[in-house]
Design brief:
With 216 residues, this protein is an all-alpha fold. It has helices at residues 3-26, 31-38, 44-76, 80-99, 115-124, 127-141, 146-172, 174-214. Helix 1 (3-26) packs antiparallel against helix 6, helix 3 (44-76) crosses helix 6 (127-141) and helix 6 packs antiparallel against helix 7 (146-172). The two termini are 27 Å apart.
Length: 216
């Protein structure tokens, strides 16, 4: 395999891996009930603006977690393996709750802007999503060569942007999607995403154990 092919495969791998993981764990369709309840009584343009702001804030939070994740780990002396195990367990628990219909109490806004809280955080950039991007940052830190790390970071940032764009599109058409799918359709999608999250979490744990045993 040539160097160009290796870098292209690396780029595609981190983009698709990040996109699938983040799109699954953020579960855009699951944000529809929360968004509709928060936007009740508001004009459509105002609700759309809040959705756009929330996705922008979510992007900043997740990108910040990606770049600051390794520094935070080093500051607290946490190994990459331990982070992946903890992140994998967190993702698996969230997936389990989605799969079997266990959910936490829905957070509501105070009547003002709800873009940052609770829509962006913890709605978009919740514990599972942040654990995912920090786990990816630990994988990037172990790559050999500055070019490889640069491409991996670029691909992951692109996957975060694509995820937030997807969420914005869903929120923008929340009323239409809610009417078409109904509560049962959204529930089915949430359970399928829950199963995928459990699989992703197990993969994170397995990768973490290997790194932890190797002493990294």
């Amino acid at each position: 395999m040539s160097i160009d092919e290796h870098l292209l495969r690396l780029l595609v791998s981190f983009f698709l891996g990040g996109l699938i993981s983040l799109a699954t764990i953020t579960n855009p369709l699951s944000k529809i009930p929360l968004f509709l309840s928060l936007a009740a009584g508001r004009a459509a343009p105002e609700a759309t603006l809040e959705a756009r702001r929330a996705c922008f804030y979510g992007f900043l939070l997740l990108a910040g977690g990606l770049f600051a994740g390794v520094m935070i780990l080093e500051a607290f002396g946490i190994s990459f393996g331990a982070l992946r195990i903890a992140g994998g367990l967190t993702v698996s628990i969230i997936g389990y709750r989605m799969l079997f219909g266990t959910s936490d109490t829905t957070l509501t806004g105070s009547g003002g802007s709800f873009a940052f809280f609770p829509l962006a955080m913890p709605g978009i950039a919740g514990p599972g999503a942040l654990a995912t991007v920090i786990g990816i940052s630990s994988e990037i830190a172990e790559l050999d060569g500055g070019i490889s790390r640069l491409l991996a970071y670029s691909a992951t940032v692109a996957s975060i942007a694509a995820t937030c764009l997807l969420i914005w599109l869903v929120l923008r058409s929340a009323r239409w999607v809610s009417r078409r799918l109904g509560s049962e359709g959204i529930n089915v999608v949430a359970r399928l995403n829950g199963f995928l999250l459990v699989c992703i979490g197990v993969q994170f744990v397995g990768s973490g154990i290997r790194s932890f045993v190797a002493g990294t």
